[in-house]
Structures are given as C-alpha cells and as structure tokens.
Amino acid sequence: MATFLYKLGRLAFRRRHLAALIWVALLTLAGVGAASAPSAGNSSFSIPGTEAQKAFDLLEQRFPGQSADGATARVVFKAPAGQKMTDAGHKATVEKTVHTLSDGSEVASVADPYQSNAVSKDGTIAYASVKYDVSGMELEESTKDALEDAAQQARDAGLTVEIGGDALQAVPETGSTEIIGIAIAAVVLVITFGSLIAAGLPLLTALIGVGIGVSSITALAGVLDLGSTTSTLAMMIGLAVGIDYALFIVSRYRAELAEGREREEAAGRAVGTAGSAVVFAGLTVIIALVGLAVVNIPMLTKMGVAAAGTVAIAVLIALTMIPALLGYAGRRVKPAGEKSKLLGGARAARKKEAGEPAKANMGTRWASFVVRRPVAVLLLGVVGLGAAAVPAASLQLGLPDDGSQPTSTTQRRAYDLLSEGFGAGFNGPLLVVVDAKGSDAPKDAFTDVSDRIKGLDNVVAVTPPAPNKAGDTATITVIPESKPSSAPTEDLVHAIRDAGGDIKADTGAETLVTGATAMNIDVSQKLNDALLPYLVLVVGLAFLLLIVVFRSILVPLKAALGFLLSVMAALGAVVAVFQWGWLSGLMGVEETGPVMSMMPIFMVGVVFGLAMDYEVFLVTRMREAHVHGEKPSQAVVTGFRYGARVVTAAAVIMMAVFAGFIGSSESMVKMIGFGLAIAVFFDAFVVRMAIVPAVLALLGKKAWWLPGWLDRALPNVDVEGEGLRTAADGKHTDPDEDRVPART
Questions:
Q1: Which end of the chain is more exposed for a tag (fewer CB within 10 A), N or C?
Q2: 514 in helix, strand or coil?
Q3: What is the DSSP string of 271-284?
Q4: Comparing 128-137, 332-341, 354-363, 626-635, which segment has the lowest mean pLDDT?
C-alpha cells in the first residue's frame, strides 16, 4: 500500500493543477445541487419490528386519508390573570383563531377547544389541535406563517398564545461556538507548524471536504429522506477528521524535508507513510459509522452512512489535494524544526548555526517518564477513568421531546402551559389501537379494552373508542399522570401491552400501543438490544484490521480495552452534565433529564473510530522504530518524539470542533458535541498518551508478538513504508523478510 500511495502522492504533487481542479469542480457541482434542492427538514421516523411501528402502519391501512404521519400543532391559549378562557371575549378570540386556521390548504382538521373539551378545569388554559395533511418536513412556509400569524392575532387580543407540536420544528442552529472551534483549530495548527501557510492547508482541505459532503447530503435530502441532523453530524465529524488527516500528512512532509529530500519525493513519502495510517484510521471510522445499520433504525443508518461518506471524502482529499497544495506552496512550507521569521524562525536558525544541541521535546520527556514509572502511570490512568465512569451506572435513556427544548422556544412554553393546565402526562398521550378484525363482537372488544385501561395505575383519562368506517378497528387515547420521559409512563406502556395478551384471549382483539411516547420507549429498547451485537461487530472488524496494521495480537487488544475505558468515562460525564445537572449552566443545558437513547451506541461507534485514529498514528511510529532495531522501551520514546506533538494537536483540534457544537439549539446535537469532545479528551490524553505507553513498556517484546502461521497468512500492507526504503536503497527484499521483526 505504501508504494501505491507514494506514487499517488508524487502524481498529485506533479499534476497539482488537475488534482485541484477536480476537487474544486466536485465542490461546485455539490454546491449547485444543494442550492437547487429543497431545504432539509425532519426525516420520517420509523422503527421496523416494534409494536409502535406496527400500530402506526395499521392506522395508515385502516384509517385511510387521515394522514397518520401528518404534522400536528397545539395552539395553547392562556387567559390573563384573574380571567378565564370561558369569558365571552376570549371565547370569541379563540373561535376566530380556529376559523382562520381552518382555511389553510394543507390543514386536515382543527378541533375547537370548547367543543372538544380542551379547556382546563380552572378555565385558565385551552388548546386547539391542528392536524395537517403532510408531514412537518413537507409543510409549506406559507402554512407555517399562517399558523404563527393566527397565534399573533390572538396575542394582540390580550391572550398568551404558544404553539407546540412538530409543525413549527425548525432546522437546528449550531451557534457561534462552532466558529470559535474552527478558530481554535487554526491557532493550534499555527503553533504546531510554526507557519501560517502550513497551518492553512489542513483547514482549507477540511472545509472543502466538508463542503462537498454536506452539500451532497443537502442535495439528496429530499430524495433519500435525510433530516437536518444528518448534515450537522456529517459536518461535525468531517471537520474533525478532515483537519486531523491533513495535519498528519503535512507534518510527515515537513519531517521528510528535514531529512534533506526533494519536495516531490517528500510529498510522495509523506502520503506513502502517514497516508497509509490515514487510510486505516479512516477505515475504522467508516466501519464504525456504517455499522450503525445493525440497529435497524433507518434514520440512524442514514446518519451513519452520510457521515461515513464525508469521512471517505476527507481521506481522499488528504491523499490527493494535500500533496497538490504542497506543490503550490513550494518553499513556503518549511522543514520540521524551522519556523517562519514571524514565529521565531530566526532565533531557531541562530541556535542551529551555533551548534547548540537540540532540546528534547515534551513528548520525549513524557514518554521517558512513563517508561520509568509504567505501573504508577497505568494505575493512575485506569483509576481516574474508572472514577469518571461512575455516573454511567445511573444512566437513564430516553428521547428528547418539547420538554427538553430551551425555554425561549414557543414549543417549550406550550409544553409548560399544557402541563400547568392539564397535568404533566398530557404532553405524552398514548394511542392505543384495537384491531378487532378477528373478534366476533368488535364493539364489546373496544369497550372491554377501554375499561381495563381505566383500571391501571398512573392513568388520568381515557377517551371513548373511536372506530373506523369498517368498524373493525378503533383508537383510544390514554393520558398518563406522569410526564412522557419518565419511568412510570414507561411502566404504563408495558402494563397496557401485558394486558393485551389477556384481552386477545378473551375477545380475539389485538391491542397495540403507539404514539410519540411509545415510539421513544421502543427506540430505547431497540437500541439497548442492539448495543452488544454492534459492539462485537465494530470492535471485531477493527480488531482484525489493527492486527494487519500492527502485526500483533496484544497491541490491538490493548487498543480495544483502552477504548472501552474512555467511552465509559465519557458516558459518565454525559450523565453527570445532562442527567444530574453538573455544570449544566456552563453547557447551556436548561432542562436535565434522561440521556438520549442513541447516545451509548452512537458514542461506541464514533468514539471507537476516532480513538483508533490516535492509536494508528502514534503506535505506527513505535512499531516503525521497533522494526528497525530499537528496543521496545526506546521505540516507545521514539514514537512519542515524532508523534506526540502532532497527536496532541490533532486531539485539541478535534475537541475544539466537537465542543463548538455544544452551542447548538438542538439538544441531541448539543449532547453529541459534548460527549464526543470529552471522549476525545479521555482517549487521547489519558488512554493513548498515558495508558498505552505504560502497557507497552510493561509488555516489552511481547507486545509485538504474532504467531508465525498468522504472520505468514496476513497480507503485508507496509504501513511503515519499508518498501519505500528498500527501493531507495536499491535493494530487493522478500516481503516475508519484512515481517521478521514483528515476531521478535
């Protein structure tokens, strides 16, 4: 592989005009497609194989024309202090609002609160339910404007009016902190390279890669039913890995220049060596993201595949556009150890001319300390991560609803008004679907189901059965006493489903529970059930990949165990902030509650892929030194001397990019941004920088042991670029001979 990538790097360096033109053309094409495509909204949500989805599908079949997936809105009215919604003036205002809303072209129905018994017992709050023919992502802007205008007219008449539901759900905003994250990345790059030109290359290529990826997602959003969160995730991961991959290649290029090589040769060798590590690191991320398909939730699968595509673009750009831009930069990108005059290069040059010995860098000093005290460092790292992971023991999972929105949104204020007037459970009604097609007395079956539900705990209200035209299916709405994202509500869902077995035995009717709350519960269960198979699949595939890269059994095993430590510690931090409320004000968390159901499996996938990036880049340098004759402990120090500075910069950049998304208005994006940022911190600085060198120092030569039969069976991918050195020396070496040091 190193030889192929070496040739590719030299070709891109020589044909830089063509390479740059291809990527600019792709960016332009994707941009035009995105500009002409409709804006992304919220993708349709389905969870195949669950009871909630089965009930939803049955509704569409038995209640045709009622748009079961249509958008909904609850227009909530509150009378001024000391007045009631039943007062004549307020009643007239509400009825006028209902009439105005009914005129919309996409409106299926509007329920008058005075006819549907939607006025609170104290008479201060009422709500009108609006049902639309199309889903929230398909609603015309004119329809949304009409809804807001109608609410404003009622406000002008003296009422407090807020709008809940998904009709007004907007594309999440990331906030200014995303720009701050990129700015921090730029500063870190300048400090790392000591050159503004060299620092600008990773930023430029990362932005081009993300531009192509996100624009492509936007262009295909309508066709593939991609939600707005999909592009946000792709941007988050694409920026982070795009900067990091380019950083590693530019850093290796400068190191090759420092050894006296010509610029084209240095570009080829940089792509052949660091580029090989980029390919394998990118593959681990792609495997982790595409592996989300095993959960069998279409929305999660699409998010993973879209983000994986952006990572693939980042890899290709790092391998081709970076050497092309290095060709354009010429002598403005200086060898490692040299800085521009602006950043202190003159002083460094004087020291070099005076013959002063080079000072050991911080990576060398740290690695030497770890090699001398491996047991103490290992224990401190493991205990520290274990302490951070303690909150994960009380992890509660759920999906965000309007109650987790910022209090500045109308959806959250509508949620609070409904809770105030009708109880906490009113925001999470359960929809019970009774399929009596196999019953001899459907009406009796409907009544029996309703009566049994009324006798369950935590039930405030049960609406009368509403049968379809055929009379073989009915819907019953159940209002719990507890709020949607709570354990008692989940217990009620399970209680209704458990009662369904007895009902079917007695009446022949099948009882199914659906609705947003039941959907969330089923999603959480499905994600929990898929976590272990997903972990085995992703870690297993990546483990095999790392065996090929490192030609070792213990090194990949240590990498996987270290990852588990960092991901558990990161989950503990997420629980502490978003569930317990620690530092919630600093993070902008206005409402604590259950952790998003997707978070554990999502963190396992994404963090594993990113963690293996640092493992590949750092340990590859160590193996390279060991293969060329250094003792195991010295190889650890050598690996840190060349790789620690760059890996540290890469981790800080990735943390800054992820942390930039903490400012998002979308709770899911905010949680993902924080979780990934803290996970990168734990994995890069505790696991890879402390635990990994400590373990390698303790294992010694055993770390690089590989059974002879397996060594002969594995392909020689030559990540270290041994083939390049052999070619440069004019020697011929049997590929099997290159593997011998790995068995020492």
A1: C
A2: strand
A3: HHHHHHHHHHHHHH
A4: 354-363
Q: How far is CA 341 from the centre of its chain?
A: 41
- Mean pLDDT to the nearest integer, 344-359: 49
Q: How far apart are CA 539 and CA 552, in angstroms?
A: 16
**Tokens (6 digits) for 277:** 């590590």
- Distance between CA atoms of 562 and 546, rounded to whole angstroms? 14
Percent of the chain predicted with pLDDT > 70: 88
SS (H, E, C) 118-161: CECCCCCEEEEEEEECCCHHHCCHHHHHHHHHHHHHHHHCCCEE
Q: Which of 283, 289, 320, 271 is nearest to 549 (CA)?
A: 283
The neighbouring-strand residues paired with 73 are 130, 165
Max alpha carbon distance in the chain (Å)? 101
Please name the helix (run of DSSP H) or strand (run of DSSP E) that holds residue 536, with its range, or none.
Answer: helix 516-550
The answer to which of 169-173, 383-387, 519-523 has the lowest mean pLDDT is 169-173
* Residue 658 to residue 610: CA distance in whole angstroms: 12
Place of tokens 């909530």: 76
Question: Is residue 722 predicted with pLDDT exceeding 50?
Answer: yes
**By the 8 A CB rule, do 632 and 552 touch?**
no
Spatial CA neighbour of 517 closest among 431, 416, 396: 431
At residue 726, what is the residue type? T
Residues with Cβ within 8 Å of residue 560, at least 6 apart in sequence: 539, 542, 543
pTM of the model: 0.76
How far is residue 317 from each of residues 268, 407, 617, measured CA to CA in Å?
A: 15, 42, 18
What separation, in Å, do the N-terminal and C-terminal C-alpha atoms of the chain show? 23
- Number of other CB atoms surrounding residue 304 within 10 Å: 24
pLDDT for residue 733 is more than 50: no
Distance, C-alpha 744 to centroid of its chain: 41
Lowest mean pLDDT among 247-251, 451-455, 598-602: 598-602
pLDDT of residue 337: 66
CB atoms closer than 10 angstroms to residue 353: 8
Q: For residue 36, is it left (φ>0), alpha (ψ between -120 and 50) or beta?
A: alpha
Residues 404 and 595: their CA atoms lie apart, in Å, by 11
Q: Cβ contacts of residue 501 below 8 Å, gap of 6+?
A: none
Residue among 512, 560, 514, 543 at smallest CA distance from 687: 560
Query: In the predicted model, what is the mean pLDDT of residues 478-496?
Result: 88
Structure tokens at 564: 């588990």
Report d(CA 743, CA 598) in Å as an integer: 42
Q: Answer whether residue 181 shows pLDDT above 90.
A: no
Listed residue (597, 573, 589, 580) closest to 677, CA to CA = 573
Rg (CA), the chain: 30
SS3 240: helix
Tell the burial category of 298 from Cβ atoms under 10 Å away from its Cβ (0-12, 13-18, 19+): middle
Q: CA neighbours within 13 Å on the CB side: how many for 184?
A: 20
Cα gap 676→660, rounded to integer Å: 11
Structure tokens, 221 = 């959003």
Q: How far is CA 299 from CA 138, 225, 663, in A?
A: 17, 9, 23
Compute the CA torsion angle 194, 200, 206, 210 (nearest 10 deg).
150
What average pLDDT score do residues 417-432 get?
Answer: 89
Give the β-pairing of 510-514 and 430-435.
antiparallel
* Selection from 241, 72, 93 nearest residue 165 by Cα: 72
